[in-house]
C-alpha cells in the first residue's frame, strides 16, 4: 500500500498467491487516507508507541499489544502509525458468515472495534498469539497452511464472541432458552433463513415455523439472544442487502429498495437514516468518494 489514497476510496486488494488470508508485516504505511473494502481486517500493534485510526467516524488509539477490528465495508483511515508497528491480517468478508453459527455471532462481534491489552490482557494475548500463528503459517511451506490460517481466524472470531451466551452441550434442556443447546441451534438456523430470504415477504410466523417454535416463544427467545426484535433484525438484513446492491452492484437506490424487500422508498429511507445515521444517497456518495459524512451505528435496536 502507498501512504495515501484518494479520500473515501474503494480499495480492491489482491490476495497473495490466491490465499484466503493475506498478511502484511512491517510494511504498513505511517498514514493512509479514508477508504473502505469488502474484506475484513485485524490490526495488531506490535511495537511501542501509539497508532491512531479512524473507523466509521470514531477515533481509536492503539498501544502495543492492542487489537483493532475493521469489519467489511467500514470506512477507515490510518491517522498516524510508527513505521513497522503493525501486523495486519486481511480476510474475505464472507468468512464471517461461512456457517450459520458464525453468521449469528457476526451480529454480536461487529459492534466491537478495539480489544485493549490493558483492559483485557488475557484475551488480548490469546488474540495476538493467533494472529502471529497466521503470520508464521503464511511464511511456511506447511501442508494445508491456508486451511490452518482459516482455523486460526475462526478461533479468533470465537474468542471475540466469547461473551455471547452460548450454552454448553452438557446443559439440561429446559423451557428457558439460555439452557438449551438445541434452542440455540434452531435460532442460528432461523437467523440464516432470515438473512438469505430477507428480500421476500417473510413474517415472524414464517421464521418461527422454520425454526420449529410458536411465534410467541420465538419472539421472546429471539429478543433474549439477539438483543433486538425479529422486525428490527429483518430490517437490518434488508438494509445490508440494499447497500450491497447500490454500492457493489451499482444499481439505482430505487431498484435496490425493492430488490432488498422494502415496500416503499419512504420506509427504506426512514429505516436507513435511523440505522446508518445518514441518507442512502449520502452513504453511497461517501463510499464512492464524496465528502458527505454519516455515522454507521451498526446497531439493530
Automatic annotation (TrEMBL):
PROSITE patterns recorded: HTH_ARAC_FAMILY_2
Residues spanning the signal sequence: none
The entry's keywords: DNA-binding, Transcription, Transcription regulation
Keyword Transcription regulation annotated: yes
Pfam families listed in its UniProt record: AraC_binding, HTH_18
InterPro entries found in the cross-reference section: AraC-bd (IPR003313), Homeodomain-like_sf (IPR009057), HTH-like (IPR037923), HTH_AraC (IPR018060)
Name of the protein in question: AraC family transcriptional regulator
Top-level division of the source organism's lineage: Bacteria
GO terms assigned for molecular function: DNA-binding transcription factor activity; sequence-specific DNA binding
Organism, scientific name: Candidatus Fusicatenibacter merdavium
UniProt KW Transcription regulation keyword: yes
Span of domain HTH araC/xylS-type: 188-286
Amino acid at each position: 500500500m502507498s501512504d495515501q489514497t484518494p479520500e473515501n476510496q474503494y480499495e480492491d486488494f489482491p490476495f497473495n498467491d490466491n490465499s484466503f488470508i493475506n498478511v502484511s508485516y512491517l510494511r504498513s504505511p505511517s498514514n493512509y487516507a479514508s477508504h473502505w473494502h469488502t474484506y475484513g481486517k485485524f490490526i495488531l500493534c506490535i511495537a511501542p508507541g501509539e497508532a491512531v485510526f479512524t473507523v466509521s467516524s470514531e477515533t481509536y488509539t492503539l498501544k502495543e499489544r492492542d487489537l483493532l477490528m475493521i469489519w467489511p465495508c467500514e470506512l477507515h483511515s490510518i491517522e498516524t502509525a510508527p513505521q513497522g508497528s503493525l501486523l495486519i491480517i486481511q480476510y474475505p468478508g464472507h468468512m464471517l458468515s461461512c456457517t450459520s453459527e458464525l453468521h449469528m455471532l457476526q451480529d454480536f462481534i461487529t459492534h466491537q472495534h478495539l480489544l485493549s491489552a490493558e483492559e483485557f490482557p488475557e484475551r488480548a494475548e490469546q488474540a495476538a498469539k493467533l494472529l502471529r500463528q497466521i503470520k508464521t503459517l503464511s511464511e511456511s511451506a506447511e501442508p494445508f497452511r491456508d486451511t490452518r490460517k482459516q482455523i486460526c481466524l475462526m478461533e479468533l472470531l470465537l474468542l471475540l464472541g466469547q461473551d455471547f451466551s452460548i450454552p454448553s452441550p452438557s446443559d439440561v434442556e429446559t423451557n428457558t432458552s439460555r439452557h438449551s443447546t438445541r434452542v440455540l441451534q434452531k435460532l442460528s438456523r432461523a437467523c440464516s433463513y432470515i438473512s438469505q430470504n430477507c428480500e421476500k415477504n417473510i413474517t415472524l410466523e414464517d421464521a418461527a415455523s422454520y425454526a420449529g417454535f410458536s411465534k410467541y416463544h420465538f419472539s421472546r427467545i429471539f429478543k433474549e439472544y439477539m438483543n433486538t426484535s425479529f422486525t428490527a433484525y429483518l430490517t437490518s438484513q434488508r438494509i445490508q442487502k440494499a447497500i450491497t446492491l447500490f454500492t457493489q452492484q451499482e444499481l439505482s437506490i430505487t431498484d435496490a429498495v425493492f430488490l432488498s424487500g422494502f415496500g416503499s422508498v419512504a420506509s427504506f429511507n426512514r429505516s436507513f437514516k435511523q440505522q446508518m445515521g445518514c441518507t442512502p444517497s449520502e452513504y453511497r456518495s461517501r463510499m464512492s468518494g464524496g465528502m458527505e459524512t454519516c455515522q454507521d451505528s451498526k446497531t439493530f435496536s
